[in-house]
Amino acid sequence: MSNSLLRRLAFGFAAGIGLLGAGSAGAVTAPILVVEVDSGKVIYAQGATDPWFPASITKLMTTYVALDLVRQGKVSMNSLITISAAAAAEPPSKMGFRPGTQLTLDNALKIIMVKSANDVAWAIGETLGGSVENFAALMNDTARRIGMHESRWTNPNGLPDARQWTSARDMAILGRALIRDFPENRDLFSISAIQFGKSIMANHNGLLGRYPGADGMKTGFICSGGFNVVSSATRNGRRLITVVMGQPSARERDLKASDLFDYGFNQTTGWTAQTLDSLPASNISEPPDLRPYICDRKKPMPVDEGPGAIAGNTDSSNAQILAAAAPPGSALALATLNNGAMRGRALPARAPLQPIPVWIGRDPADGAAILTAQAEAEKAERAQAQAAARQTRLDALAARRAAAKDAKAKTPEAKKALARGKSAVPSSASAYAPAEATPLLEGAPKLKVNTLHKPSAKEQPKAQAKSPAKAQAKPAAKVEAKPVAKPKQSARPARAAKAADAE
Question: What family does this belong to (predicted)?
């Protein structure tokens, strides 16, 4: 390899490590841990005590607290968990249950282990703890009691919170405690799928049904923490737990976990092997934020569920930055620095799912009745919403028509017509309406109806001033004109004769 190529690789790797620094002088590596369940002996560790954002592997801690409360007799697996408005408002991944919905703790735990439903995990915390804050206090007390050193818990579902973090070692301790303390509930972590109504939801854990011997436990993903998994597998009666954190995709996380299992099952642990408690403390004080590298805005948002998470993107540009910093040996090459070898690789096709039914309410019959009632309520709500929308459209149309009519009345032509009085008469006015009901123009004299005109004193002298001869001439002329009048005489000579007589 040329010196220039070596320099470019060294510079790129140093830049990546510098970007992942979290306030410490040393490099921040993606945590990796392989441990033997029965003995607690460490087979391989890398960054195992570094603080890290847990994401949904938090739900393993939630499950331990819930099962511990059942063991103490404070609740039972049939206790009802209520979905509050706050729980229903939690972002996906979620079941989308309506506020007030109830389900048994048994079904709730199955749902959070398979679907990783944030709304259900939140409801578990609220119901069992009285509040999320009280439940987080139980989580912290339990973590200290079982030997977890780096963990700090603030919520039961693992959604982003800068105050909540854990470590690979703590998650391995928790995984061992779940297997050791609740053997009757081990199947809870290996369910391949759940069925709710007609919907079948596969487990987010891409190792189940794809890696021989895989039998749990939980995955998690947020942009700041990358893709995490706590997984368990058994081969020839020997059980291992592998923790992989901070990976750039679900596909690479699953592939690295499978490679670490292959490595671990080929190793033996002697009396000199490290234990989880003997791992050295981390030299960094807070988790790194991987958001700029995991959730690149120029690329589609990574997913931790569905076919996309299993198939994955073969682009390993982010993986080159997030590669582990420990010198790889031949047995660990695929699981540490050799991220380029992930390109084109894939786990075998998943075995057929075996869904476990879950329901709301106390039993399946109760759940079916609740779903029917909810469906009818939703139908009525849709009909009401459609009627309201229709009425809103009609009101808007009426308002537009009224506005258009008002605008037309305010045009110059309408104002002139109003000034002339053309528009002053109401449309209901009738030609037979009495004169008193007819509006008058401003300034016009008021007329009285059915009153006789009585001449005033000033008018009487004028009537008397007329000549008697003229007053008497009119009837005389009329009398005299009748005998001599001709039927076919034109009107003009008659008027002339009348004028002559008047003179």
Answer: Belongs to the peptidase S11 family.
